[in-house]
Amino acid sequence: MKNNRSCIKSVFSALLLVALLALPTAAEPNGLKLFEDLQDHLSSASNRVKSSVVHIEVLAKRGEQRHKGLGSGLILSADGKIVTNHHVIDRAQVITVILDDKTKLEAQVLRRDQQTDLALLQVQAGRPLPAAQLADSDQVRVGEWVLAIGNPYGFDRTVSFGIVSGKGRFIPGLDSEVPLLNDFIQTDALIDPGNSGGPLVNLHGEVIGINSVGIGRGQGFTIPANVVRDVITRTEVEGRIQRGWLGIYLQPFTPEMADYLGHPRLRGVLVSDLVQEGPADQAGLKSGDVLTRFDQVDLDADSDDSINRFIQMVSSLEPKTRVPVSIHRQGQSLERTLTVGIQPPVDAAEVDTDFGFGAKQITQALFLEYRLDQREGVLVSYVTRGSAAQEANLEVGDVIVQIDGNPIRTVEDFRSRLSGLERRARFLITLKRGTVTRYALIDLSRYRAPKPTS
Predict the structure, then answer these.
(1) Residues with Cβ < 8 Å from 47, sequence gap 6 or more?
(2) Which of 50, 229, 330, 395 is the most buried (most CB within 10 A)?
(3) Top CATH class, 350-447
(4) Closest C-alpha among 194, 172, 184, 230 to residue 88
(5) What is the CATH number of domain 38-234?
(6) Which uninterrupted H or E stretch holds 399?
(7) Where exactly are the structural domains of the chain?
(8) Along the 454 residues of the chain, how does pLDDT read in single tens digits?
(9) Residue 50 contacts by C-beta under 8 Å, 6 or more apart in sequence?
(10) Same CATH fold, 350-447 and 242-342?
(11) Residues catalogued as catalytic
(12) Distance between CA atoms of 180 and 117, rounded to whole angstroms?
């Protein structure tokens, strides 16, 4: 009931604003013309894009569990390229795209980028498809009216109306292992489950972004159109987008911290830690340094939003670029030159097994999240209830280092060792749980149907 009252209040406020604007002509016979013109304009803007919005159905699998998912997408080119959210197609085995005329097409994933929550799909329709026009999202203004179009709860091409509430918003990653890079556009146009991947449209019928997530009521977050352009044109290396990287961990440097250090006017970003042998470490930066200037840009990062914008700036740089930086260290100003590195994988490769568990590559983020003591091995990512793995007391966070005495150093080692195990009745896993070595005997005999007798 509270949400309904809030929605009604928002609609009433919008209508009241329009009514106030219409007061000068209210006494005229055509006093409602302003309302009619606005209505026609909104309808025209949505109709320009609606035929480019697609419904996406996904059949996904994790271990022995399968589930269906729904989402939206936007046709970007007449030859069938479609953009949607990464989280819509994550783990998908089958992706079905439903066009405006109800044609169903199977889609292939051309590109996926978990850090921006974007994915690019390809369908073969055998005919040109209606493509939407992307706007320059840098020109979006706070307060301008927008339409969100998508398929919330499976209702095809639903339109909601609102304004741009803010720009440059930072929200935590949809998957905590992978922080998002976007400067999100915030809108109060409703973005509900199923809207993900659909467009946010201005009153000219131009797409200013791809809707990603709604948080509560009237708190929607949209990936800017310029980020979409960047992701679909970026260079890929080994199946992932190549981004710049410094190998540093950052936190906001607040005015209160500057005052405590005796330099109340000092502004910058605080280096909290460094990756050993990473670009920043090799350039001589240290934990506790305040980075004040980067590539001729003065830094002032006193919030997570500011940190995110700095990380975006770094990620846009070409690897091997040499960048001058200024740092403040214990009252001294120092100059250094950093050589930008290539960002290591952040979206961990995961392998599902038929034994009731999955395992992931150990990325830097997982290494820190689980406070691991080693990087070799694979991390147990899930354990299915009632499976042989659960019976063997395997737990999420365990690091598998051997299978039947054979070392497991990488996710590729793990994949190769799985071959043939399904024909075995039992096998032994050596693992690390914290600093303690443990053993898990996977006994499959109890979980197989008996062979028929003649």
Answers:
(1) 205
(2) 50
(3) mainly beta
(4) 194
(5) 2.40.10.120
(6) strand 399-403
(7) 2-31, 38-234, 242-342, 350-447
(8) 444 444 444 544 555 455 545 455 444 556 577 777 777 878 888 888 999 999 999 998 776 677 889 999 999 999 999 999 999 998 899 999 999 999 999 999 999 998 899 999 999 999 999 999 999 999 999 999 999 999 877 777 788 899 999 998 877 655 545 667 778 999 998 888 888 999 999 999 999 999 998 887 778 899 999 999 999 888 777 677 889 999 999 999 999 999 999 999 999 999 999 998 999 999 999 999 999 999 999 999 888 878 888 988 898 898 899 999 999 999 999 999 999 999 888 778 889 888 889 999 998 778 888 889 888 999 999 998 889 999 999 999 999 999 999 999 999 999 999 887 877 889 999 999 988 999 999 998 876 555 555 4
(9) 100, 149, 157, 159
(10) yes
(11) 87, 117, 196
(12) 7
Largest pairwise CA distance in the chain = 94
Distance CA 411, CA 381 (A): 12
What gap in Å lies between CA 97 and CA 71, rounded to an integer? 10
DSSP for residue 295? T
Distance separating alpha carbons of residues 9 and 7, to the nearest angstrom: 5
- CA–CA dist 68, 156 (Å, integer): 17
The per-residue pLDDT for range 145-186, each reduced to its tens digit, is: 999 999 877 777 788 899 999 998 877 655 545 667 778 999
Judged on CB neighbours under 10 Å (0-12, 13-18, 19+), 282 is middle
Report the distance separating Cα 185 and Cα 226, nearest Å.
11
The neighbour count for residue 437, using CB atoms within 10 Å, is 11
**DSSP codes joined into one string, 246-269:** --EEEEE--HHHHHHTT-TT---E
CA-based radius of gyration for the chain: 26
Place of tokens 């960047």: 230
Q: Which of 132, 87, 94 is nearest to 112 (CA)?
A: 87
Cα–Cα nearest to 232, from 97, 82, 53? 82
* pTM exceeds 0.70, yes or no: yes
Cβ partners under 8 Å of residue 89, min gap 6: 56, 58, 71, 95, 109, 112, 119, 121
Could you tell me which residues come within 8 angstroms of residue 450 by beta carbon, excluding any fewer than 6 positions away?
A: none
325 contacts 291 by C-beta, under 8 angstroms: yes
Digit-coded pLDDT (tens) for 259-292: 999 999 999 999 999 998 999 999 999 999 999 9
- Residue range 242-342 in CATH 3.40.50.300: no
